[in-house]
Design a protein that fits this description.
Length: 217
C-alpha cells in the first residue's frame, strides 16, 4: 500500500507595486499638493498629471476621482507633519525651542494644503483621515505639553490654535502669488511664537481651540 503524501501548502506571494509605479504615485501626490496650495482644490487633474510628468491614465489608475486624490494629499501632508512632531519629540534641550522648530517645519510642509478638506465634499470621516488626524493631534499635544510643563508655553492655547495659525500664516492672502510670501512666512511665524511664550501678556478671548473645534467650525 502506497503511503499517503501530504501536499505542501501553497505559498502565496504578496504582490508589491513596481518601483516605477511607486515613484509615479509619489510624483502625482507631490504635484497635487503643490497645485492645491497654489490654485485650490479645483485645479484640473490633467494639469496635475502634466506637472507630475505622467499621463492622465496613470493618474486615474492611482486615483479614480478627485476626492481620492485630495484625500491622499491631505493624509500625506498630515503624515509628514506628524513625522516632524516625532522628530521634535526625539530631541532634547529647551522645550520651547523644540516647539518652535516643529512649527517652522510644519510651515515648510505647506500644511495649508489641509484646507481643501474643509471645503471638499468627500468623506471627512474616512478611516485614513481619522487615523492621520488622531496621530498628529496626539503628537502635537505632546510637544506642547512639554513646553507647558517647563513653564514656557502659555496655558490658554491648544493644538487647534497652533495648527490654524501655521496653516493661515503659510498660505498667501487673496490676490497674492503663492511664492510671493515665502520670505515672510517664518518671520510672521516667529512673531506668533513669541506670543505663545509664558507668562502671557494678555488674556485671550474664548477658549483654547482643539482640532475637533476646527473640524466643526
Amino acid at each position: 500500500m502506497q503511503a499517503a503524501t501530504t501536499a505542501n501548502p501553497v505559498q502565496r506571494r504578496t504582490t508589491r507595486p513596481r518601483a516605477d509605479a511607486v515613484r509615479n504615485r509619489e510624483r502625482i501626490v507631490t504635484a497635487a499638493r503643490e497645485m492645491f496650495v497654489e490654485h485650490g482644490p479645483e485645479v484640473p487633474l490633467d494639469e496635475i498629471a502634466r506637472r507630475a510628468g505622467v499621463g492622465n491614465a496613470t493618474l486615474y489608475r492611482n486615483f479614480p476621482d478627485r476626492d481620492a486624490l485630495v484625500r491622499e494629499v491631505v493624509c500625506s501632508v498630515m503624515d509628514r507633519t506628524a513625522r516632524a512632531a516625532e522628530q521634535a519629540l526625539a530631541e532634547t534641550g529647551d522645550a520651547f525651542d523644540v516647539l518652535e522648530r516643529f512649527v517652522h517645519t510644519a510651515a515648510d510642509e505647506r500644511i495649508s494644503a489641509l484646507c481643501p478638506m474643509v471645503s471638499s465634499t468627500f468623506d471627512q470621516h474616512h478611516p485614513d483621515l481619522e487615523a492621520a488626524r488622531e496621530r498628529i493631534e496626539h503628537l502635537v499635544q505632546e510637544v506642547m505639553d512639554r513646553a507647558k510643563e517647563a513653564g514656557q508655553l502659555r496655558s490658554d492655547v491648544g493644538v487647534g490654535d497652533v495648527m490654524v495659525a501655521v496653516a493661515q500664516l503659510s498660505r498667501p492672502p487673496a490676490g497674492a502669488g503663492c511664492g510671493s510670501i515665502d520670505r515672510f512666512v517664518h518671520r510672521h511665524l516667529q512673531l506668533f511664537l513669541d506670543g505663545l511664550r509664558a507668562p502671557a501678556r494678555s488674556s485671550l478671548p474664548g477658549t483654547a481651540a482643539t482640532m475637533e473645534d476646527l473640524r466643526q467650525a
